Structure formats: structure tokens, C-alpha cells
């Protein structure tokens, strides 16, 4: 694994921090984001296993995203993410696809990791928000992981039937949205 860059993004309150790495594995690049859950999360979010989101560089329109959320090619996503997970020392077996990974509606599908992924975040006191400095200490926390692979990946599994009623309902909601 070759590490290309590392950046940290912190919320103004200092409770939330993302660590973003661009890595290269076998000549293929990906941007990997570790997102901690912060301090003010519900009991359900604190206790749930880590989530893994995977996508390629292609961007869908808003309407296509709504229509295709229930038709993601998760087998392809699992295989595409595997070398990056291995390089980062994360589990590759036991990834379970869930249409309800982040929410109780099917709006945010992702993989559920077989265990909690815990990472340490170093937060620098570089910013002063509202007259008080941000927190500055190392903190461990359960993280969710996003992998954006720097190549095209399919966004739809054509073997999963498209529900015409779903398409019609989404079109009714998005009338006037470009």
C-alpha cells in the first residue's frame, strides 16, 4: 500500500472528526474516509457495528440515485473494496449488505462490518471557535468507513427488477428538480 495523502476535517464543536486518506494498492487509487460518530450520538449509533460505503468516481443524478438505491451491485462493490480493506488491515470476510445500514428506511444502503472498527484521531488545537479553542487530544472511537474508488464502477445491478411504482412516486416528488 502506498499512502498518497492524509487530511483531517473537524466540526466546529470539536466533537466530530474525519480522517481522509488517499491510498494506492496495486496501481489502483481510492479515497478512504474514516468518520467517527462524535460524542452526541444515540445509544443505537454508539453500539452498532461499523458501516462500509463503497462507490466509484461516476456521479448519478439525484433522480437516478433515488431510483437505483435498492438496485446496487453490492457483489461488485465487495470485490472492488477487498484489496483496500486488506491493505488497511480491516476485515474482508463477513461483510453483510443491508439496504437499511444507516437508516430505518432504505435510503442509505451499505455493508455492515463484522465488528466495530476503532481508530484513534489526533485533533490539533488549531482553530478557535467562538472564543474557545477546539479540543486537542487523541480520542478513540468507533468509525464508519467510506471508500471512493478512483475508477468507474456500475451503479445499478440490472438483474434486480425496477419497481415502476417506485419510479412513478419518485418522479412525482422530484417534479421541477433538475
Structural class: alpha+beta
- Order of helix and strand elements from N to C terminus: EEEHEHHEEEEEEH
Note the total helix count: 4
Low-confidence stretches: 123-129, 133-137
Question: In words, what does this structure look like?
Answer:
It is built from 4 helices and 10 strands; from the N terminus they run βββαβααββββββα. The longest helix has 14 residues, at 74-87. It has helices at 43-47, 62-68, 74-87, 164-173, and strands spanning 2-10, 17-25, 28-36, 51-55, 96-98, 110-112, 118-122, 128-129, 132-133, 138-149. The chain is an alpha+beta fold and 178 residues long. The protein has one domain (2-173).
Quick description:
With 178 residues, this protein is an alpha+beta fold. It is 20% helix and 33% strand.
Topology:
Elements: E1 2-10, E2 17-25, E3 28-36, H1 43-47, E4 51-55, H2 62-68, H3 74-87, E5 96-98, E6 110-112, E7 118-122, E8 128-129, E9 132-133, E10 138-149, H4 164-173
Parallel strand pairs: 4-10
Antiparallel strand pairs: 1-2, 2-3, 3-10, 4-6, 5-6, 7-10, 8-9
Features:
178 residues; alpha+beta; eight-stranded mixed beta sheet; two-stranded antiparallel sheet; 4 helices; 10 strands; 33% strand
Amino acid at each position: 500500500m502506498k499512502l498518497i495523502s492524509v487530511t483531517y476535517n473537524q466540526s466546529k464543536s470539536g466533537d466530530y472528526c474525519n480522517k481522509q486518506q488517499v491510498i494506492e494498492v496495486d496501481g489502483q487509487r481510492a479515497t478512504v474516509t474514516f468518520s467517527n460518530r462524535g460524542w452526541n450520538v444515540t445509544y443505537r449509533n454508539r453500539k452498532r457495528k461499523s458501516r462500509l460505503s463503497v462507490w466509484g468516481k461516476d456521479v448519478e443524478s439525484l433522480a437516478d440515485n433515488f431510483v437505483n438505491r435498492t438496485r446496487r451491485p453490492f457483489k461488485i462493490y465487495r470485490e472492488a473494496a477487498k484489496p483496500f480493506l486488506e491493505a488497511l488491515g480491516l476485515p474482508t470476510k463477513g461483510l453483510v449488505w443491508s439496504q437499511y445500514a444507516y437508516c430505518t428506511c432504505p435510503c442509505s444502503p451499505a455493508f455492515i462490518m463484522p465488528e466495530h472498527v476503532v481508530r484513534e484521531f489526533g485533533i490539533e488545537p488549531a482553530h478557535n471557535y467562538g472564543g474557545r479553542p477546539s479540543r486537542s487530544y487523541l480520542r478513540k472511537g468507533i468509525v464508519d468507513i467510506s471508500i471512493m474508488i478512483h475508477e468507474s464502477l456500475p451503479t445499478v445491478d440490472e438483474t434486480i427488477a425496477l419497481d415502476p411504482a417506485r419510479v412513478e412516486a419518485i418522479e412525482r416528488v422530484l417534479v421541477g428538480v433538475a
